[in-house]
Amino acid sequence: MQITKENLTIVIVTIKSQNIIEKCLDSIDPQINKIIVENSSDNNFKSSIENKYQNLKCYVVGENLGMGSGNNLGIMKSQTNFVMILNPDTVLKPNTLNELYEVSKNLDFSILCPINSDKQYPNFSSKQLKQKNIFNEDLLEADRVDGYAMVLNKSKFQNNFFDENIFMYLENDDLCLRMKKQNEKIYVYKKSIIEHKGASSIDKKYSDEVELSRNWHWTWSKFYFRRKHNGFINAFLFNFPTFIKSCFKIIYYLLKNKQKSKIYTYRASGFVNSFLNKKSWYRPKID
Fold it and tell me: Which of 34, 75, 101, 276 has the fewest CB atoms within 10 Å of its CB?
């Protein structure tokens, strides 16, 4: 089945993203259905965004669900065959979606993605990169793709989308790996280009708190992901050196730079909690 504007819904998970979301929405064809999942209690945001944009529904969930759970909610609310997951700090080019529509004709895929406009930061990894002339091909089969712009063929997932145990980081890697294990295809199409601002989804006034959260969840998710797919021993051996380095840096920066010491404390805490098989409980303090 081909992707069309009629059978596509765009899902965007936000939290305090008013500073960036409108640039993203302005780049989307207004005729396409859009679902925003706002991970806060900001009903003013819901009213303003629904009044400004057509074919848009905003769900204010009242708590920070994270990326995976938020995207799952948006996917379940969608009524179309295809869903495009977008981050609020992305901007579509005028032909981004048209190129995806065209290439999807007779293409069997589980995930189809545009390519990042900045070639220094590719949004995918692929074994095909080892082959000659790979960049002369427009359609690349990928092993994993970044989660900030991806079209999901819902029929391939049997309602088993993002792992909701993961609050943030590696939820897209987990999704891709599960699809590859089922011999499903993941593609990146070079003619479809997207701009990604990167780390710009949340207002900068929350930057310190967000940095602590990122460090906690990065180490928690790395251990969880490895244990899920490779076993406990592999996860421990892979992640323990980072934990040891973090402990040394906590002490090193204790008097020199208290913020850095705090960052490494959160990094170590994420490892310990995941090691002890505790849930991904930490949430950034964003009011």
Answer: 276
The secondary structure of 149-172 as a DSSP string is EEEEEGGGTTT--S-TT-SSSSHH
pLDDT in tens, 117-133: 998 889 998 876 655 55
DSSP letters, 238-277, are HHHHHHHHHHHHHHHTTTT-HHHHHHHHHHHHHHHHHHTT
- Residue 4 near residue 101 (C-beta atoms within 8 A): yes
Residue 253 CA to residue 261 CA, distance in Å, equals 5
- Per DSSP, helices labelled H in 40-134 are 43-52, 66-77, 96-103
Segment 59-109, tens digit of pLDDT: 999 888 999 999 999 999 999 999 999 999 999 999 999 999 999 998 999
The C-alpha atoms of residue 199 and residue 185 are separated, in whole angstroms, by 28
C-alpha angle 260-261-267 in degrees, rounded to nearest 5: 90
- pLDDT tens track for 233-268: 999 999 999 999 999 999 999 888 989 999 999 999
| Cβ contacts of 110 within 8 Å, gap of 6 or more | 152, 153, 156, 157, 179, 182, 184, 185, 186
Question: What gap in Å lies between CA 148 and CA 28, rounded to an integer?
Answer: 15
